[in-house]
Write a structure and sequence with these properties.
By secondary structure, the chain is α+β, with helices and mostly antiparallel strands. It has 4 helices and 4 strands, in the order ααβαβββα.
Length: 215
C-alpha cells in the first residue's frame, strides 16, 4: 500500500504538471502561429496576384486602345492619300475638258462607243450647256464612224441638259427610252475608283492580312 505524498512531493508533481501544460501550450501556440503565417502568405500571394492581374488587364486595355487609335490614324491617312489620288485624277479630267482638241477627240470616241452599244436608229445625247457645240461636232464625226462600222444610219439630237458643275462627257438615251448610257467623266471616274480601289490599296499599302481575296 502506497503512502500519501508529502508536501514536497506534491509540489514536485504540481511543477511537472505545470511544465507539461506550459509545454503543450507553447507547442500549440507555435502550431497556430505557423498556420497563421502560412494562411497569411497564401492570402498575401492571392492579393498580389489579383492586383497584378488587374494591372495587367488595365495595361492590356490601354495598349489595345492605343493600337486601335494607331490603326484608325493609319486608315485615315491612307484614305486621305487615296482621296488625294482621285482628286488629282479629277483635275486631269478637268484639264482634258478644257483642251478643245483633245476633248472633242475623247467625245467622239465615247459617242461612237455608245452608238454601237445601243444600235438604234435614233438617240438623244445629253451634254453640259457649255459643251453643246463640241458635242455636236464630235457626234457628227461619231455618226460617220458608226455608219462605216455598222452599215447603219443614225439620227441624234444634242441637248444641253447636264449641269456645268460636272466634269464633262455625255449621257445617251436611246430613241425607245429603254437604254441609258452614262458616259460622263464623273461617272467614268466613279466606276474607275470602284474598280481600281482594291488594287490601288494593295499597290500603295501592300496586301491586307485580314483579307484572303481581292476583287
Amino acid at each position: 500500500m502506497s503512502r500519501p505524498m508529502n508536501d514536497e512531493e506534491v509540489m514536485n508533481e504540481m511543477n511537472k504538471m505545470v511544465a507539461f501544460i506550459k509545454q503543450e501550450a507553447m507547442e500549440k501556440a507555435r502550431e497556430i502561429k505557423i498556420k497563421a503565417d502560412e494562411e497569411f502568405a497564401i492570402e498575401k500571394a492571392k492579393l498580389v496576384k489579383q492586383e497584378q492581374q488587374a494591372i495587367d488587364a488595365q495595361y492590356d486595355k490601354k495598349r489595345k486602345g492605343a493600337e486601335v487609335a494607331q490603326k484608325m490614324q493609319l486608315l485615315q491617312r491612307r484614305e486621305e492619300h487615296l482621296q488625294d489620288l482621285f482628286s488629282a485624277s479629277r483635275q486631269d479630267l478637268q484639264r482634258l475638258a478644257s483642251d478643245d482638241a483633245r476633248y472633242v477627240q475623247f467625245l467622239e470616241g465615247i459617242i461612237t462607243q455608245a452608238f454601237l452599244q445601243v444600235l438604234e436608229p435614233s438617240v438623244t445625247i445629253h451634254a453640259r450647256k457649255s459643251d453643246v457645240a463640241l458635242v455636236q461636232q464630235a457626234a457628227d464625226s461619231a455618226a460617220k464612224t458608226f455608219t462605216d462600222l455598222s452599215g447603219r444610219a443614225i439620227d441624234y439630237d444634242v441637248e444641253g441638259t447636264l449641269s456645268d458643275d460636272g466634269a464633262g462627257g455625255i449621257k445617251l438615251i436611246s430613241g425607245t427610252k429603254r437604254i441609258t448610257l452614262d458616259n460622263t467623266l464623273d461617272e467614268r471616274l466613279r466606276l474607275l475608283e470602284d474598280r481600281m480601289l482594291p488594287e490601288i490599296r494593295k499597290d500603295l499599302f501592300g496586301p491586307n492580312e485580314n483579307r484572303k481575296f481581292y476583287t
